[in-house]
Amino acid sequence: MLFHPPKNPVELKVMHLNKSQAQRQQDLVEATQGKAALKQFKKTLAKQDKKDAKAKSKRKGKGSDKSAQVFVLDFDGDMKATAVKHLREEISTLISTANKGDEVVIRLESGGGLVHSYGLAAAQLARLKDAGLKLTVCVDKVAASGGYMMACVADNIIAAPFAIIGSIGVVSQLPNFHKWLKNHDVDYEMFTAGDYKRTVTVFGENDDEDRAKYQEELEQTHELFKHFVNRYRGMLDLDKVATGEHWYGEDAVHLNLVDRLQTSDSYLLERMENHDVYALHSRQKPTFAEKLGLSQAAESALNIAVDKLPEVLSRLDFNSRFNILK
What we know:
There is one protein chain. By secondary structure, the chain is an alpha/beta fold. It is about 50% helix and about 15% strand. It folds into three domains: about 10-20 and about 70-165 and about 245-285, 2-enoyl-CoA Hydratase, Chain A, domain 1; about 170-225, no CATH class; about 290-325. It contains 13 helices and ten strands. α3 packs parallel to α4 (about 115-130). The model is unreliable at about 1-5 and about 320-325 (pLDDT under 50).
C-alpha cells in the first residue's frame, strides 16, 4: 500500500489585507498615472507607515496594550452548514492566538438549513465572545433562519441595504406515498418501540395524532430558536419578528434585527485605516492526484496501479534473472 496517504490535512492561508490593498492601489496608480506618480504615492505610504509606527510606539510607552487586530473569516452556508468544518478550526486557531479586544469579522451568507447543524455553527461563534474577542457579522446577501441564528450571536450585525434578514421560524415538509402504495397493492410496515419514535412518515398512513405530535415538536424547536435569539438580542420584539417572515436590510434596522447598513467591503476598508486586518481561509490540502487534475476515477485507477507496482517489478526482476540463467 504505497499510494494511500492519510486523509489530506487542513492548511490555513493568511492574507494581510492592508498590504494587498496597498499593492492594488500601487498597481492602479502606475497603470493610470505612470511611474513618477507611483514613486510619489510610495513616499506617501511610507510617511503614513512611519506615522503609524510612531503612534504605536507611544502607546507602548504609556503601557497600553498593542493595537487591536482584525481577523476576517468567511462562512458560506448550505443546508447542512458543512462550512462549519473549517470554521471551527479557524476559530480554535484564533482563540489560541489572538489577544482579548481583537475583533473577528464573519462575512456570513446563509439561508439556513438543518437545526442541529446551524445550532453547532452558532455555538462556534459564541466561543469567540466567550474568549473575550469582539465579534462582528457582515451580511451582504442573506442571513435567514439558521443563518440569522448565527448572526444574532454577534456584538454588531452589519447588513447591506437589500440583504435578506430574519426568517425566525421552523419549517418541515415531506411527501407521503401511502395512497400510491395502497393503489398498487404494496404493503408498508414499520416497527417501533416507544409511542413517538416515529410520528409522520413518508410511506405510512399519517393520522391526526401523528400530525399533532409532529407540530408540537416543531413548535418546541421554534421556542428554542426564539429563546436563543432573545439571549443575544434582547432588544428585539420577538412577537413581531419571530413569525417566520424575512425583511430587507432597510426594514431590518428599524426592527433591531441588524445594527447598521453597510457592505462588508466598506466596513473592512474603515477598519484598515487604523488596524491591521487579516483574512483567514482554510481548506483541505489537495491530494497528489488533484494537483495533477485527475478525476476521482483516475485517482482510484492510479492507486491500484501503484499498489500493483511492487508485484510488477518483482516479475520483471524474475524474468530478467530467468533470461540470464537461460
